[in-house]
């Protein structure tokens, strides 16, 4: 019999008021018979629990009785920061601790504040992952949580984007960041602090090495600086494009905000049908081609030549696949009214 579960029964009754045996059983993940036994054990221990018979009845504590047994365990204290983030907490392996921590917090609050907390919890919900993709699988995330909190180095096998793609590293984890449903590890390597996408970790093992996290390291400040640097490194070129009114309307749904802002700040009118010409930042020819093709006939690349040619080549391949190669000019160039 778990003493921890008896405490949970007591805290549930204190924070929720009257609860049926079925309600207690469902909350604790046990059978109704076990819930009856747990209540009987609390009564035998002198806790003033009484049963209210009839429809809508259940168990409750004598008015005014409050337990002071709300001390948090180390794991529950760690989980406190994630009390409003059940999804991320589950990713980190702290789902049970979060539930227990929230229950103890509610039990410790005066009645008025407890009711207000319950109302707040009922009207806010966080769903971190973005649309149109499955949640990422992060089997090594709990290991990194342990490494961050105990300041132990980790040996990882990591898949990165550039060659050599698979590398081995000994990392000293400084923190974890959740960005749009994606977990990142911030860790010191051999000679610098870097950011690692957790889903790209192929293998990870805790080492015996202990390290001291620099006292002046600020995870939030580091992440802000990292994002600024990422944006600087992300865009390596520019392109001149023409957009129809419909293309401009659809732009925010198909390209990053930086591109939208560039269009807004550089757009000049061309022709009499509402088209505009603008200069936008680009990551690479391949990436820009993929993004701009989403706008279909509502965009035309003016420059650079290699991007314009990539667009024409891609449209040509599509035209041949659909048996309409005659819509592509012999030169392979695009026109603004391409069907």
* Low-confidence segments: 330-339
Mean pLDDT: 82
Apparent shape:
elongated
Portion in beta strands: 15-25%
Describe the sheet with the most strands.
5 strands, antiparallel
Widest sheet, order of strands: 6-5-4-3-7
Q: Specify the helix fraction band.
A: 40-55%
Secondary structure tally: strands? 11
Structural class: alpha+beta
Protein described:
Residues 5-60 form the Helix-turn-helix type domain. Residues 141-204 form the WYL domain. InterPro entries: CBASS_pafABC_assoc_protein, HTH_11, WCX_dom, WH-like_DNA-bd_sf, WH_DNA-bd_sf, WYL_dom. It holds the Pfam family HTH_11. This protein is an alpha+beta fold and 339 residues long. Helix content is 42%, strand content 22%. It contains 13 helices and 11 strands. It has helices spanning 3-16, 21-28, 32-44, 74-79, 86-91, 95-108, 111-123, 141-150, 219-234, 245-250, 257-266, 285-293, 305-321, and strands spanning 49-52, 58-61, 152-159, 166-179, 182-188, 193-197, 201-210, 237-243, 268-269, 276-282, 299-303. Helix 1 (3-16) packs across helix 3 (32-44). Residues 330-339 have low confidence and may be disordered.
